[in-house]
Amino acid sequence: MISSDVIRGYNDTMILFLLLEEPSYGYEISRKIREISEGRYVIKETTLYSAFSRLEKNGYIESFYSDETTEKKRTYYRITREGLEYYREKCEEWYLTRSVIDLFVRDRKED
Amino acid sequence: MISSDVIRGYNDTMILFLLLEEPSYGYEISRKIREISEGRYVIKETTLYSAFSRLEKNGYIESFYSDETTEKKRTYYRITREGLEYYREKCEEWYLTRSVIDLFVRDRKED
DNA sequence: CAGATGTACTACTACAGTCGTAGTAGATTA
DNA sequence: TAATCTACTACGACTGTAGTAGTACATCTG
């Protein structure tokens, strides 16, 4: 399992990625991350909800309640225009970061 | 410029990578990181020195002073067996992490 | 029918790594 | 002689994540 200290800074990006597809809520996001990563990464609840509030505070996502009264009371989130913009920036940043770290991560001595 | 929150957790790995080549010291490590990354990443002094002390505390590097008395007083570091081990683990972790983040970083909607 | 499990959160505390700022001090270059 | 380079150390602050705990309702299982 991946230590989340490594993914730090990309939880927000993953959440936004999933919200691009459709509005969603905590538990579903969590489940999708686990599924997409095939269990390699499982986001902690605290991390997830603190990410939600941070993203909302920054205007990258908006919360709302489902119209259907039959449904369980839960908070849904949808991505905003600013959120999409931010997501794209993070993607660019990721390519750059990945290229830099790749330079330092390879075997040098074989002993 | 890359946000250092992203590389967080890989500063140690970069330092160890450079120490694999030869023992070195703060300023040189800093310079090499800047050079290798072609200026895309510049490690902060405070980050660097706190990484040194953390790595030494964990037994991944050892400090020593140069024999040459003519040389400027500076602390050198060399990587230990445990450091090499740790470096290898971080490399493996990186490949895994990279593969996971890659799944969430790609354009989904083109609007 | 009860109890376990799944869903959907909230609250609070703690910590590690990084940042910003500042300061020291000797060596080299202009 | 001043500016820049080298080689650090100290301190306080911030952010994101972790850990722990608790609430509450729904659904499945024996």
What does this protein look like?
The structure is a homodimer of 111-residue chains. With 111 residues, chain A is mainly α. Chain A has a single domain, classed as Winged helix-like DNA-binding domain superfamily/Winged helix DNA-binding domain (Arc Repressor Mutant, subunit A, Orthogonal Bundle). Chain A has helices at residues 4-7, 11-21, 26-36, 45-57, 81-104; strands at 61-65, 75-79. The first copy, chain A, has a two-stranded antiparallel ribbon. In chain A, helix 2 packs across helix 5 (81-104). Chain A is globular, with a radius of gyration of 16 Å. The interface between A and B is large, with 38 and 38 residues. Chain A binds a DNA duplex (30 and 30 nucleotides) through helix 4.
In brief:
Chain A has 111 residues and is mainly α. In chain A, 57% of the residues lie in helices and 9% in strands.
Query: How many beta-strand elements of chain A?
Result: 2
The backbone outline of chain A, from C-alpha atoms, is globular
Individual helix count of chain A:
5
- Total domains of chain A, how many? 1
Gyration radius of chain A, to the nearest Å?
Answer: 16 Å
The secondary structure category of chain A is: mainly alpha
Q: SSE order of chain A in H/E notation?
A: HHHHEEH
Strand content of chain A: 5-15%
**CATH homologous superfamily assignment of chain A:** Winged helix-like DNA-binding domain superfamily/Winged helix DNA-binding domain
Largest sheet of chain A: 2 strands, antiparallel
Largest interface summary: A-B, 38 and 38 residues
